[in-house]
Design brief:
Strand content: 25-35%
CATH superfamily of the largest domain: Medium-chain alcohol dehydrogenases, catalytic domain
Number of strands: 20
CATH class of the largest domain: Alpha Beta
CATH topology of the largest domain: Quinone Oxidoreductase, Chain A, domain 1
Structural class: alpha/beta
Number of domains: 2
Radius of gyration: 20 Å
Number of helices: 11
Distance between the termini: 13 Å
Shape: globular
CATH architecture of the largest domain: Alpha-Beta Complex
Largest sheet: 7 strands, mixed
Length: 345
Amino acid sequence: MKAVVLTGIGQVEVRDVPMPRPVRDDDVLVKMGAVGVCGSDIHYYRDGRIGDQVVVHPAVIGHEGAGVIERVGPAAGGLKPGDRVAVDPAVVCGRCDQCLDYRPNTCRDLLFLGTPGQLPGCLSEYLVMPARNCLPLPEGMSLGDGVLVEPLSIALHSFKILGGRAPEKTGILGSGPIGLSVLLAARALAPGPVYMTDRIDDRVEAARRAGASWAGNPDRDDVAAEIGSREPRLLDAVFECTGDPAALDQAVDLLAPGGRLVIVGIPAAPRVSIDIHALRRKEITVFNVRRQRYCFSEAIDFIAGGAADPRFMLTHRFDIDQAAAAFDLTAGYRDGVIKTIIRLI
């Protein structure tokens, strides 16, 4: 079968790789139809690593996927061949202390698609996954829509981690796919205005069109002054979705005393710094987001029911044989790209 393979820094090839084979009774074989190119994939493509997770080339990556069930094991529950599914990329053990404490996203033995040392990615024609990781898509949702389930699930978890106390005034730093997904979650779950930033003007405009109360470019706009003029008492929560360490200090500047900083973005470097005195003077609470937990089905329901419509993020589509061009365009932030998907059907 064909698969998209990282062969070196900035190098992508489509190669023939062995067909995966179901092993467990609950395994299903999925014919992949669409896979998104995520920011973490771009880290692996451009830098060869995220922190201490270092790519060993060649490597198949990709974790935002949807496809069609082709074969099911005897313990596959209600799934059947022909079902269209979104793939939850996190395979958890279900037995460790974290899983038993309803924290599967920090499972001690978690295996994640397309992560060095864990599982090959889903940017391939076929994928074998446990049945519990394959969630049926309702009528009206395409496989392309299914690609958007995983980033939206992260956004929903980012709000749930706040413990049910939704912010009245929200900031989102970064208007890429994750930041825009957080915006959609904020519009559904939080009552008040949402302020957004990005260094790419096309993404600033996308944030405005998607419902941000104000959006600006920190390289050109005085973000603190612009937001402060509208919210003199500052913001209740800021979601950092860029992975840029400089955005952490800006987030603290924008937060009111007692505010909440939610770190969603993934920095490329293993260590970052923050003004600890500004953090402690305001008594800011910091939340770290580790993917998602129990939000995958909810994300499907959000899209299917119209509570959130992330389809505007699907700006570019490529066939599998154009994978190198897809990665090059996405890594270069060109042509107004927000979310790129690679089609395999």
